[in-house]
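Support request from a user on the community tier.

User writes: "When I paste my C-alpha cells into the form, the page sometimes reloads and wipes my input. The last time it worked, I copied everything first. Here is what I submitted, just in case something in the input itself triggers the reload:"
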C-alpha cells in the first residue's frame, strides 16, 4: 500500500543543515498495523509527515496505492489527504468547539450535507464510546477521552490509512492500553491500515504486526514484531527492548505444558483482589503461577501474570470466567 524509496530529508536551520532522514526504503502492506520506533530526534515525525505530504522529501519518493504523492495536483492531494487520518500526542482538538464540532470538522470543510454529518459524527462518537460527550468541550475531557475524540475526528471521513504520531505518549499506562485496544479494534473491524510511531516498545508489542527501528534517520532493523523482539540484531533495538517486561522472551518456554497457559492482565482495581485464590477454591483446580510481572514503577499494580490451568476444557473455562468476572482480562497463550 505504501512504498517509500530512497527518501531523504534535510532541514536548514540557520547556518546548520540537519539530515533528518538519510535514505529510507520501506513498504507497508494494506491492513497491517506497522510500527516505527526510535529515540527522540531519530526522524520518526519527519517520516510519518511525509506520508500525507505535510513534509516534502528532499530526495526520494513516497507512493500510496501506486500514486506518487509528489506528482499530485493540489486538488488530487486534498483528495488523497481525505483518505488519511492522523492523531497526535497532544490530541490537537479545537478548544473553542464542542466534541461534536471537532469530530464534524473534516466533514464541514469538505461540505458534507448537515444530515450526513450528524449521522456520521454520532456513529463515530458511539464507536469511541463518547456518545454522551457531544456537547462537552475538550477541556472537560480526560486525556484518554480527548484522544478518543481525536480518533473519531481522524476516522469520520472514512480514511483507508491512519497515522499515529506518539498517540499514547501523553497518557497513563491503563489509558494507553484502552486506546491501543480501540486502535486494534478499528484495524480489525474497519480494515484501516495503521502506521504508528512511538518511542515506547510496549506500544509496538501491544498492537503492531511489523516494526521498523529508526536511528539517526536510517532504518536499522525491520521485521515481524515477535522476531525483532526475540532476536534483536542492533544495539539500539536491544536498548529499546531492555525496559520491557521480560515475558515477551519467555512465552515460548510455556508452550510444552499440558494445562491451558493463560496470561492475566490486571489493572489498578483487579490487582487488589485475590482472584487466583478465588479461582482455585471455586474450581478446585490446582492453578499454577508461572510468572508475574507487576509494574513496580507506577506502584499501581498494573501488570500481568501467567498461569497454568490444569483440568478439562469445561473447568478451565469456568476458571477463566471467574477471572473475567473480577475484571481481569485473560489471554490464552497455549
Ligand atoms: N522543521 C524542522 N527544522 C529543522 N530541523 C528539524 C525540523 N523538524 C525536525 N528537525 C530535526 O530533524 C531531526 C528529526 O526530528 P523528528 O522527525 O521530529 O524526530 P522524532 O520524531 O523521532 O523525535 C531532529 O534532529 C530535529 O531537530
Ligand atoms: Mg516526533
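"...and here is what came back when it finally went through:"
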Amino acid at each position: 500500500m505504501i512504498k517509500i524509496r530512497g527518501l531523504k530529508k534535510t532541514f536548514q536551520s540557520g547556518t546548520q543543515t540537519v539530515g533528518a532522514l538519510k535514505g529510507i526504503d520501506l513498504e507497508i502492506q494494506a491492513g497491517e498495523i506497522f510500527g516505527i520506533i526510535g529515540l527522540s530526534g531519530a526522524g520518526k515525525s519527519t517520516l510519518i509527515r511525509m506520508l500525507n505530504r505535510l513534509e516534502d522529501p528532499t530526495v526520494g519518493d513516497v507512493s500510496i496505492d501506486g500514486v506518487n504523492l509528489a506528482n499530485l495536483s493540489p486538488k488530487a492531494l486534498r483528495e488523497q489527504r481525505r483518505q488519511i487520518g492522523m492523531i497526535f500526542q497532544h490530541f490537537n482538538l479545537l478548544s473553542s468547539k464542542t466534541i461534536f464540532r471537532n469530530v464534524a470538522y473534516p466533514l464541514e470543510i469538505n461540505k458534507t450535507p448537515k444530515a450526513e454529518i450528524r449521522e456520521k459524527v454520532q456513529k463515530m462518537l458511539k464507536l469511541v464510546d463518547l456518545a454522551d460527550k457531544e456537547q462537552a468541550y475538550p477541556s472537560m475531557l480526560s486525556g484518554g477521552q480527548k484522544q478518543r475524540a481525536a480518533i473519531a475526528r481522524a476516522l469520520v471521513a472514512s480514511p483507508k490509512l491512519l497515522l499515529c504520531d506518539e498517540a499514547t505518549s501523553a497518557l497513563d499506562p491503563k489509558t494507553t492500553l484502552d486506546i491501543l485496544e480501540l486502535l486494534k479494534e478499528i484495524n480489525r473491524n474497519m480494515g484501516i491500515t495503521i502506521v504508528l510511531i512511538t518511542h515506547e516498545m510496549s506500544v509496538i508489542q501491544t498492537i503492531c504486526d511489523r516494526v521498523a527501528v529508526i536511528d539517526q534517520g536510517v532504518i536499522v532493523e525491520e521485521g515481524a514484531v515477535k522476531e525483532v523482539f526475540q532476536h534483536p540484531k542492533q544495539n539500539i533495538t536491544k536498548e529499546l527492548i531492555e525496559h520491557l517486561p521480560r515475558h515477551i522472551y519467555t512465552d515460548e518456554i510455556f508452550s510444552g505444558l499440558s494445562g491451558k497457559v493463560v496470561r492475566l492482565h490486571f489493572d489498578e482495581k483487579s490487582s487488589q483482589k485475590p482472584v487466583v485464590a478465588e479461582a482455585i477454591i471455586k474450581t478446585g483446580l490446582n492453578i499454577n503461577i508461572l510468572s508475574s510481572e507487576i509494574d513496580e514503577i507506577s506502584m499501581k499494580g498494573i501488570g500481568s501474570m501467567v498461569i497454568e490451568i490444569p483440568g478439562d476444557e469445561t473447568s478451565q473455562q469456568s476458571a477463566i470466567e471467574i477471572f473475567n468476572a473480577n475484571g481481569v482480562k485473560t489471554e490464552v497463550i497455549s
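Agent notes: The reload is a front-end session timeout and is unrelated to the input. Residues 44-45, 166 surround magnesium ion (ligand 2) (CB under 6 Å). The chain is about 35% helix and 30% strand. Escalated to web team.
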